[in-house]
C-alpha cells in the first residue's frame, strides 16, 4: 500500500513531556483499529482489531494493523486496552500476543470474555487480564486510565480517559447515544461533562456515522418491525446478524417467545458468543425458547427460527451456504423469511446482494435494511457528535474509526462547534501533543498485514496483484527450447492458457513471431535465459493485448538444450 502522505518523514524524537499518538490501523478504513500512545518512553495500546478483506484481495482471511514500527519495543508496552468486543477492536490481539504473550489486557467483563475464547482458539493461555468497569481508575506506568460507559451495538463498551503529564486524552471507542437502549446503559454524558470540565486536551471520536445527519434511532424502534415480520411469516424464519449483537439476538428471542416459536443458533461464533453473553447475564433467554439445531428440524416450519451469522455475505458463513443451497442441514424453501438485521459495511455490498439474490431465487422473502427498519447503526450520527463536542469542549480533536471521508466529515462537525485545532491523521501518521497543542509530527511505515491461512505478513500487495490478474485475466505459459550451440530455437514454442475461452490453436499466429524475436535477440548477443524470457513476454503481451484486449499473466520459460 502506498503511503497516503509521502511528504511526511520519520518524526523527530518526542519532546520531553509530550504525548505521541499513532494509529496502526482504523484511520482510513472501517476495521483493524489500533492506536498507540507513547509517553516518557512507555507505550499504551488501545484496541487491536482486524479488517476483513474485500473482493479485490482474493484468498486473504484477515488484515491486521501494522505494528512493525514498535516490534522491537513491545517490552515497553504497559497494556492493551480493549474498548469493546467487536472483531475490528479485538480480532488481532492473538497475533500481537504471539509476539509478547504477557502484555496486560484491560477491558470490561464481556469484552475480555469474548477475547478469551478467541485466545484459547489460538492456544494462548495464562494471559494477563485486568477486568474493569465504568467509573474504574487504573494506573499503568505513566498512564492513568479512567473508564466511562458508552452505548454501542454490543454490551459493556467503554470509552477511556488517559491522563499523562502531557494532558488528558478522551478516546470514545465506538459509541452512540441511544437514550432508551434495551439494557438501559447509556453513554455517560455526565462523565463526559466532568472530564470536559477538568479539561480534555485531545478528544478521539468515532467518525463512522459523521456523514449521517441527525441522530441514530433507538434500538427500541426495531422491536415492532421484528414482531411484524414474525406475525406475517407462516413458515420458517432465518435471522442473520452479527455474532456479537447481543441486543439484536435478545429482540429475536423475545419475538420468538411471543410468537410461540423456538430458536436455534447457526454458526460457530454465534453459538459461542451467545453462550458467553448468557453465562455473564447480558442475554436473557426466555424459558424453553432455545433448542439445538437437531431438535429444531423436528418442529413444523412455522415454529422454527434460526439465528445465523453471515449478515455481511461472508462466503464461508452459514447464510451464504444457505443461499447457495449447500448448507448441510438448512434448506431454504419457498415462503421462508430471511431477516438481515445488520448494517452493510462498506466494501461488502456485492457479497451481501449476492446472498440476498440467492435467497430470493429460492423463493424466500428477504427483509433487510433496504426495505424495512430492521437495523439501526451502532455509531453516533452527526447530531450526537455535535452534542459531544459541546459537552466535552476539547482543546484538540482527532477523528478516528472511519474512511477518510468519515474522518473529514467528523472534523467539520468539531470545527462547527468551535474546536480550533482538529488533526486529520491516517494510519501511520504520528501526532504529538506538546504544550496542549496536537500536531502532525511525521509518519511511520504502516501497510496492510495479510493473514492467509497460517501465514502472517508474508503475502504482499504484489502477490495480491498477481492473484487478481490470474483471477480476472487468466494466464498463458510459453515454453521454448533454445539450442545453446546453434543459438536457434530447437523446440516450441509450446503455448498453454487458462482462463481463455479459446482453444490452444488460437496461439498458432504468435508462434512464428516468438521464434523470430528470439532469433533476433540471440543474434544481438542476448543469450541470458532471463533476457530471452522477457523477449517472449513482450511479444506475447503485445499480441494478446492487441488481438484479445486482455492482460493475462504471461509465464515464459526458456530452456537451453
Ligand atoms: Zn464496534
Ligand atoms: Zn469498530
TrEMBL record:
The keyword Cell membrane does not apply. It is an enzyme of class 3 (hydrolase). It holds the Pfam family RNase_J_b_CASP. Substrate binds at residues 375-379. The keyword Transferase does not apply. Its EC number is 3.1.-.-. Its main location: cytoplasm. CDD domains: RNaseJ_MBL-fold (cd07714). It is found in: Cytoplasm. InterPro entries: Metallo-B-lactamas, RibonucZ/Hydroxyglut_hydro, RMMBL, RNase_J, RNase_J_2, RNase_J_b_CASP, RNase_J_bac, RNase_J_C. Keywords: Cytoplasm, Endonuclease, Exonuclease, Hydrolase, Metal-binding, Nuclease, RNA-binding, rRNA processing, Zinc. Residues 31-226 form the Metallo-beta-lactamase domain. SMART domains: Lactamase_B. Belongs to the metallo-beta-lactamase superfamily. RNA-metabolizing metallo-beta-lactamase-like family. Bacterial RNase J subfamily. Homodimer, may be a subunit of the RNA degradosome. An RNase that has 5'-3' exonuclease and possibly endonuclease activity. Involved in maturation of rRNA and in some organisms also mRNA maturation and/or decay. This is Ribonuclease J.
Amino acid at each position: 500500500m502506498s503511503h497516503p502522505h509521502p511528504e511526511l518523514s520519520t518524526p523527530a524524537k518526542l519532546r520531553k513531556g509530550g504525548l505521541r499518538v499513532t494509529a496502526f490501523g482504523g484511520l482510513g478504513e472501517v476495521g483493524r483499529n489500533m492506536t498507540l500512545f507513547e509517553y516518557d518512553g512507555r507505550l499504551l495500546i488501545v484496541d487491536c482489531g482486524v479488517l476483513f478483506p474485500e473482493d479485490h484481495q482474493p484468498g486473504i482471511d484477515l488484515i491486521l494493523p501494522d505494528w512493525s514500527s514498535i516490534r522491537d519495543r513491545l517490552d515497553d508496552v504497559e497494556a492493551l486496552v480493549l474498548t469493546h468486543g467487536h472483531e475490528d477492536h479485538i480480532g488481532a490481539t492473538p497475533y500481537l500476543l504471539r509476539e509478547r504473550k504477557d502484555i496486560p489486557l484491560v477491558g470490561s467483563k464481556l469484552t475480555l470474555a469474548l477475547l478469551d475464547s478467541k485466545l484459547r482458539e489460538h492456544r494462548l493461555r495464562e494471559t494477563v487480564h485486568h477486568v474493569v468497569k465504568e467509573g474504574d481508575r487504573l494506573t499503568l506506568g505513566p498512564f492513568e486510565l479512567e473508564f466511562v460507559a458508552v452505548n454501542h451495538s454490543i454490551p459493556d463498551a467503554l470509552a477511556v480517559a488517559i491522563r499523562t503529564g502531557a494532558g488528558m486524552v478522551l478516546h470514545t471507542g465506538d459509541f452512540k447515544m441511544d437514550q432508551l437502549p434495551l439494557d438501559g446503559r447509556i453513554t455517560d454524558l455526565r462523565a463526559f461533562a466532568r472530564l470536559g470540565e477538568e479539561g480534555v486536551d485531545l478528544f478521539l471520536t468515532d467518525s463512522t456515522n459523521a456523514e449521517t445527519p441527525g441522530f441514530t434511532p433507538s434500538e427500541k424502534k426495531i422491536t415492532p418491525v421484528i414482531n411484524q415480520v414474525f406475525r406475517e411469516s407462516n413458515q420458517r424464519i432465518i435471522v442473520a446478524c452479527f455474532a456479537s449483537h447481543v441486543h439484536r439476538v435478545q429482540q429475536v428471542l423475545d419475538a420468538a417467545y411471543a410468537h410461540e416459536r423456538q430458536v436455534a443458533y447457526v454458526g460457530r461464533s454465534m453459538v459461542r458468543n451467545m453462550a458467553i453473553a448468557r453465562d455473564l447475564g447480558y442475554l436473557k433467554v426466555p424459558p424453553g425458547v432455545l433448542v439445538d439445531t437437531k431438535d429444531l428440524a423436528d418442529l413444523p416450519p412455522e415454529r422454527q427460527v434460526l439465528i445465523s451469522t453471515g449478515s455481511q455475505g461472508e462466503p464461508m458463513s452459514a447464510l451464504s451456504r444457505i443461499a447457495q443451497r449447500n448448507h448441510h442441514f438448512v434448506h431454504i424453501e419457498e415462503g421462508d423469511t430471511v431477516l438481515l438485521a445488520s448494517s452493510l459495511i462498506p466494501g461488502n455490498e456485492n457479497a451481501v446482494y449476492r446472498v440476498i439474490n440467492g435467497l430470493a431465487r429460492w423463493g424466500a422473502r428477504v427483509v433487510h435494511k433496504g426495505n424495512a427498519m430492521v437495523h439501526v447503526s451502532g455509531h453516533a450520527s452527526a447530531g450526537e457528535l455535535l452534542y459531544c463536542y459541546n459537552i466535552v469542549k476539547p482543546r484538540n480533536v482527532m477523528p478516528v474509526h472511519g474512511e477518510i471521508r468519515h474522518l473529514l466529515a467528523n472534523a467539520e462537525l468539531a470545527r462547527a462547534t468551535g474546536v480550533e485545532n482538529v488533526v486529520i491523521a491516517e494510519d501511520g501518521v504520528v501526532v504529538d501533543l506538546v504544550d496542549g497543542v496536537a500536531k502532525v509530527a511525521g509518519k511511520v511505515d504502516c501497510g496492510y498485514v495479510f493473514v492467509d491461512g497460517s501465514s502472517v505478513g508474508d503475502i504482499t500487495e504484489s502477490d495480491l496483484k498477481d492473484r487478481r490478474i490470474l483471477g480476472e485475466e487468466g494466464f498463458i505459459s510459453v515454453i521454448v527450447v533454445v539450442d545453446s550451440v546453434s543459438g536457434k530455437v530447437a523446440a516450441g514454442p509450446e503455448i498453454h492458457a487458462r482462463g481463455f475461452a479459446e482453444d490452444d490453436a488460437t496461439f498458432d499466429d504468435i508462434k512464428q513471431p516468438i521464434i523470430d524475436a528470439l532469433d533476433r535477440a540471440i543474434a544481438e548477443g542476448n543469450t541470458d535465459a532471463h533476457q530471452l524470457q522477457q523477449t517472449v513476454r513482450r511479444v506475447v503481451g503485445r499480441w494478446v493485448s492487441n488481438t484479445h484486449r486482455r492482460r493475462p499473466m504471461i509465464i515464459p520459460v526458456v530452456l537451453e538444450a
